[in-house]
Write a structure and sequence with these properties.
This protein has about 550 residues and is mostly beta strands. It has a domain of about 100 residues: Immunoglobulin-like (Sandwich), CATH 2.60.40. It is about 0% helix and about 50% strand. The chain has no helices and 40 strands. Strands 1-40-39-36-37 form a 5-stranded antiparallel β-sheet, with no helix packed on it. Strands 2-33-32-31 form a 4-stranded antiparallel β-sheet, with no helix packed on it.
Length: about 550
C-alpha cells in the first residue's frame, strides 16, 4: 500500500560552513585552511569554476594540492583541498594547468628527485584519474601544457637534445610523440579547432644565454605542417624566461607578443602575425607596440577582438628610473597599424607604488579588465574600454605579501566574473602564508554569495497528498550547481533517501522515490554549492 504523505509549505533557510564570495576586500575568500602554502597556478572551467593549485612543505618533502572553487565561491574539495602527491624533490616546478570541456583539470609538474615530467588529471568530484603517481610524460622538465578543443592533451618537455611534444587522449593513452625541429625547445602551445597546433620554439645562441624565437605548425597527427620553423623576430633575441602571449583569429592566424631588448637600456614588446600557411606578415621583426623604448618590459597580455578584428594589449614597463613604472594600453588592427597615438595610453602611472601587472581578461562587451599589485601591498582591478578610457578601478585586496607578480593570478570565470588568487601572511607567525581568492564582475561590482534558492521563492512538492511512488519537486535556482544533493531526513536527523542532481540556473524539476518511506514526518533538503533549503514534510 502506498504511503500517504502531506507536504506543508513550512520552510527555513540555512547556509553550510563553507567559504563563499565576499565583498570585504580585507577578508577575501580562503582557498585552503592549511598554513605555509605557496600558490602555483589557476585554471577556470567552462562553467566558471576555478581550480587553484599550490604546494606545501620544503625541499625534500613537498606536497602538491588542488582546490576547486565553484562559481558561487565555495570550496568543493573540503577545507584544505586534496593532496595529489608527496615528493622528495629538492625543487619542484608545476606551473602548468589546463582544463577541458568536461570540467577536468590537467596538471603537469617536474620532479627532479626522479628526473621525470608527470601528468595528472583531477575531475570535479576530486577523483585523481591518472593513478597515484600520474603519467610519466618524459625524463625531462615540463615546458608547456595545453588541451585541444576535442580534449586531447599536449605536453612539451625539455629533453637533452631539444624539445619533445607528446599527445595523450582524455584517458591518458599515449597517441604520439614528436621532437621539435633544430634542437629547439617548446615555449608555448596554441591548439586549433581541427586538432593541429602552433608551437613557439626557442633555439639557443651558442656561447650565450640568449635564444631566438620561432613558430612552427604541426598537424593533428604530430607531423610538421610547414617545412621549417618561422622566425618571429629575426633581428633580436632574449632570455628564455621571457613570456610569450598568443592569440588566434577566425582564420587561424597567430599573433605572438614577445618582449626583446634592442640594447642594454632599451626594450620593446613586438607583435608578429603568422598565417596558417606559415607566412610572416608583419615584416621580419613584427610591430613595435611602443613607439618609444622602455628600459624594461615586465609583463603584457594580448586579446583579439573578433567583431572589430583588432588586438588589444596591456603592457607593464619601466619608462625611466625605477620609480616610473607604468601600465599602458595598445591597440593594433589586423594590418599591423598602431591605433593609439603618442606611445599608446598610460593607464597606470605610479611613481611610488611600482605597479606589477598580474593579468588581463576581456569582457563580453570587449572591454578589458586588468589587475596589478602595488609594491605597498594593494591589489587593484581596472576596466578600460576599446578606446582606452578607464571606466573604473577597484581594490581587490589591501594587504598582499610579498609583492611578486607570480603571487597574484587572474582568470576569467562565468558571466563576466574575474577571479584573482594570491597568498599572504595575515598573522605574526612565520611561514603561515595562506591562499585567498576574490572575484569582481565586469561592471565593477563584487559578487557576494547568492542563495541557491531565494527565501521568498516557493518550492513546490506534489502530489499532495502523495499517492504515487515518486514525489515531484520543482523550484527556480539562481545559478547552476553540479553534483547537488536532494536528501530526505527523519526528525532524528537520519538520512532516509538521497539523490544527486545537476541543478540548472532557472526552472528545475526532479522526482524523489518515496515508496520505501514509512509514514511520518520528514524534511527534504536541497543542497548545492553550500546553500541549503529545507522543506518540512508531514503525514
Amino acid at each position: 500500500m502506498k504511503q500517504l504523505l502531506t507536504f506543508l509549505c513550512a520552510m527555513f533557510f540555512a547556509i553550510t560552513a563553507q567559504a563563499q564570495w565576499t565583498a570585504d576586500v580585507t577578508a577575501n575568500t580562503l582557498v585552503s585552511e592549511r598554513p605555509g602554502v605557496v600558490i602555483s597556478n589557476m585554471a577556470s572551467t567552462p562553467s566558471g569554476n576555478t581550480y587553484v593549485t599550490f604546494y606545501t612543505g620544503a625541499p625534500g618533502n613537498y606536497q602538491i594540492w588542488v582546490q576547486l572553487i565553484d562559481n558561487a565561491g565555495n570550496r568543493k574539495f573540503g577545507p584544505d583541498g586534496i593532496q595529489l602527491v608527496s615528493l622528495t624533490a629538492s625543487w619542484l616546478s608545476f606551473d602548468f594547468a589546463a582544463t577541458d570541456s568536461e570540467e577536468n583539470l590537467y596538471l603537469a609538474y617536474s620532479d627532479n628527485s626522479s628526473g621525470t615530467a608527470v601528468l595528472q588529471k583531477v575531475d570535479p568530484t576530486g577523483a585523481i584519474l591518472f593513478g597515484e603517481t600520474g603519467i610519466n610524460a618524459g625524463e625531462a622538465p615540463v615546458s608547456a601544457l595545453s588541451v585541444t578543443p576535442d580534449d586531447q592533451i599536449l605536453i612539451a618537455t625539455l629533453e637533452s637534445t631539444g624539445g619533445k611534444i607528446t599527445r595523450y587522449d582524455a584517458d591518458g593513452n599515449l597517441e604520439w610523440s614528436v621532437t621539435s625541429e633544430n634542437e629547439s625547445w617548446v615555449k608555448k602551445l596554441q591548439p586549433l579547432s581541427d586538432g593541429s597546433f602552433y608551437a613557439v620554439l626557442l633555439q639557443g645562441i651558442p656561447g650565450t644565454f640568449y635564444y631566438y624565437f620561432y613558430v612552427m605548425n604541426y598537424n593533428a597527427d604530430g607531423t610538421p605542417g610547414w617545412k621549417s620553423p618561422k622566425p618571429l623576430c629575426a633581428s633580436y633575441s632574449n632570455l628564455p624566461i621571457r613570456d610569450v602571449e598568443l592569440v588566434i583569429d577566425q582564420q587561424n592566424s597567430l599573433y605572438s607578443a614577445i618582449t626583446f631588448p634592442t640594447s642594454f637600456s632599451e626594450s620593446y614588446v613586438f607583435v608578429q602575425k603568422t598565417d596558417i600557411a606559415g607566412n610572416i606578415l608583419w615584416g621580419p621583426d613584427g610591430v613595435k607596440t611602443l613607439e618609444m623604448p622602455a628600459i624594461f618590459c615586465q609583463k603584457y597580455r594580448i586579446s583579439y577582438i573578433p567583431d572589430l578584428q583588432q588586438l588589444f594589449l596591456v603592457i607593464n614597463y619601466l619608462n625611466g628610473p625605477q620609480d616610473q613604472a607604468e601600465i599602458g594600453l595598445r591597440k593594433i588592427d589586423i594590418d599591423g597599424n598602431l591605433m593609439f597615438t603618442n606611445n599608446g595610453i598610460k593607464a597606470v602611472n605610479m611613481s611610488a607604488a611600482l605597479p606589477t601587472l598580474a593579468g588581463a581578461e576581456m569582457c563580453s562587451d570587449f572591454s578589458t579588465v586588468f589587475c596589478f599589485a602595488e609594491s605597498g601591498g594593494t591589489i587593484n582591478a581596472v576596466k578600460a574600454d576599446l578606446d582606452g578610457n578607464l571606466l573604473w578601478q577597484a581594490v581587490i585586496n589591501d594587504n598582499i605579501f610579498p609583492n611578486n607578480p607570480r603571487d597574484v593570478l587572474m582568470t576569467k570565470g562565468s558571466d563576466d566574473q574575474m577571479i584573482f588568487s594570491f597568498f599572504e601572511n595575515r598573522t605574526v607567525l612565520e611561514f603561515y602564508e595562506q591562499i585567498f581568492i576574490q572575484n569582481i564582475h565586469c561592471d565593477g561590482s563584487f559578487t557576494s554569495t547568492r542563495n541557491l534558492i531565494d527565501k521568498d521563492r516557493a518550492i513546490a512538492v506534489f502530489p499532495n497528498p502523495v499517492n504515487a511512488n515518486n514525489l515531484q519537486i520543482e523550484f527556480v535556482a539562481n545559478y547552476a550547481s553540479t553534483q547537488a544533493v536532494i536528501e530526505v531526513f527523519t526528525p532524528a536527523g537520519i538520512c532516509a533517501q538521497k539523490i544527486r542532481v545537476d541543478i540548472q540556473e532557472g526552472f528545475n524539476t526532479f522526482q524523489i522515490p518515496v515508496d520505501k518511506l514509512s509514514s511520518g514526518m520528514y524534511f527534504i533538503r536541497i543542497n548545492g554549492q553550500g546553500s541549503a533549503r529545507f522543506v518540512k514534510i508531514l503525514d
